[in-house]
């Protein structure tokens, strides 16, 4: 791929400027880094979106007929676009090519051979049969950082076991640790093992990229949903190892801290997190219950855990006497960690009202104006880009012709690939006609 900007590309602004177009313009930490994204669904695309947010030029390789599976995972839809796909694919360029076509496959092999990072989540064996496995790519590109994402890891038996988030939440103990104590195991409200895997993939890829830049040789990074889940359970996993017993589900409470849970008030629920003795005493003062602070059964956290039921009952009775808004004001003024139990939309709007730049704006060619949720980190270099806008998630094959031209495929060959259906070109690349744009 060249680092030359192309005037035929749709206009790029803000956070996506270096990702939706060729790299070299943003000053972000991954400016000039090229990523071949052979992943689909959530974990891999989430990881590569984070790389795009940091300035990498991410080429998303998709099937020319249906694209990434999540393009059809609706409702809900924004225009003709599935909200699921929109959530993890901003700032990328889409190359829609049939890997069963020899010319199309050769082009993708060339793209991987010139990339700094390759991310893939094919089933074991499939990627090697395509000549896109680590061995083949690194033979041509010794400095490549190659990330393989799977459900159960390269050594897990059976080797080709598929791993969707729901399966891994069940197999990893995540479901067993989630839910009410008297209820059944419950999955998290989001595909949490995919999200954790995406974060682990991004972190490990960046570490390997530093090594590659220093030592001149790349590395094969393996990331799995099940390992991400087991490590992501953190203190819950350690509790099981220490005790030799399965941790009990604690619902909206905490197994080791009291009070640290949801409480009803006169009108809605709040959560109170008195994570140490000093905070507990402040809570008692706000409640007007200094007797609870000095009572020997509640003086220390181990005491409070041992007498959880009695103490929670006393606190609940007090909190029910006033509405949530009053308690929030009183407890925050006293320095006690407290929050309102909000819905997702309410949470986003509340964060925006509070001054947090949660949302990015994007103008999608078919869905129209979009709000997208910013990553959990903030970069000064991103802030310098301006107006909290980003390149929207791409149309299927929106950049096919341009990316193939950049990889060295002549325009006449690109046109033939499009004509026979081996490549899909959305009518927005180059001159907007859907034909192959001249090489840049």
From TrEMBL:
Biased composition (Basic and acidic residues): 421-431
Compositionally biased intervals (Low complexity): 10-29
InterPro entries the UniProt entry points to: CoA-transferase_III_domain, CoA-Trfase_fam_III, CoA-Trfase_III_dom3_sf, CoA-Trfase_III_dom_1_sf
Pfam families: CoA_transf_3 (PF02515)
Tree of life domain: Bacteria
Signal sequence residues: none
Keywords recorded for this protein, A-Z: Transferase
Region of interest called Disordered, as start-end residue ranges on this chain: 1-30, 421-440
A molecular-function term among this protein's GO annotations: CoA-transferase activity
Protein name according to UniProt: Crotonobetainyl-CoA:carnitine CoA-transferase CaiB-like acyl-CoA transferase
Organism: Streptomonospora salina
């Amino acid at each position: 791929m060249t680092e030359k900007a192309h005037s035929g590309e749709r206009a790029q602004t803000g956070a996506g400027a270096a990702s939706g177009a060729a790299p070299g313009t943003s000053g972000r930490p991954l400016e000039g880094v090229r990523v071949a994204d052979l992943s689909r669904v959530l974990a891999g695309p989430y990881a590569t979106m984070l790389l795009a947010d940091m300035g990498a030029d991410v080429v998303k390789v998709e099937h020319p007929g249906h694209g990434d599976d999540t393009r059809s995972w609706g409702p809900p839809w924004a225009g003709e676009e599935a909200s699921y796909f929109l959530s993890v694919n901003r700032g990328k360029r889409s190359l829609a090519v049939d890997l069963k076509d020899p010319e199309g496959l050769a082009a993708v092999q060339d793209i991987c051979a010139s990339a700094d990072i390759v991310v893939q989540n094919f089933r074991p064996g499939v990627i090697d049969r395509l000549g896109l496995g680590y061995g083949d790519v690194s033979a041509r590109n010794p400095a490549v950082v190659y990330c393989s994402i799977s459900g159960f890891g390269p050594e897990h038996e059976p080797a080709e076991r598929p791993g969707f988030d729901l399966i891994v939440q069940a197999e990893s103990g995540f479901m067993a640790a989630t839910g009410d104590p008297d209820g059944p195991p419950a999955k998290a409200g989001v595909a949490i093992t995919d999200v954790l895997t995406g974060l682990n993939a991004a972190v490990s890829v960046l570490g390997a990229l530093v090594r590659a830049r220093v030592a001149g040789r790349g590395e094969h990074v393996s990331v799995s949903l099940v390992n991400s889940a087991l490590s992501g359970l953190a203190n819950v996993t350690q509790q099981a190892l220490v005790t030799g017993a399965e941790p009990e589900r604690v619902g909206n409470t905490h197994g080791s801290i009291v009070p640290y849970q949801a409480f009803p008030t006169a009108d809605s629920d709040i959560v109170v997190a008195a994570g140490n003795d000093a905070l507990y005493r402040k809570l008692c003062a706000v409640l007007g219950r200094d007797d609870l602070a000095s009572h020997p059964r509640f003086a220390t956290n181990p005491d409070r855990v041992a007498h959880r039921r009695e103490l929670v009952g006393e606190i609940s009775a007090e909190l029910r006497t006033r509405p949530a808004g009053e308690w929030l004001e009183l407890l925050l003024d006293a320095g006690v960690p407290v929050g309102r139990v909000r819905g997702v939309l309410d949470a986003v709007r509340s964060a925006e009202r509070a001054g947090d730049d949660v949302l990015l704006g994007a103008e999608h060619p078919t869905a129209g104006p979009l709000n997208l949720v910013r990553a959990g980190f903030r970069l000064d270099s991103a802030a310098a880009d301006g107006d909290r806008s980003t390149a929207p998630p791409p149309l299927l094959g929106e950049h096919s012709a341009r990316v193939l031209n950049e990889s060295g495929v002549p325009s006449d060959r690109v046109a033939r690939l499009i004509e026979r259906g081996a490549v899909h070109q959305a009518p927005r690349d180059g001159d907007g006609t859907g034909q192959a744009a001249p090489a840049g």
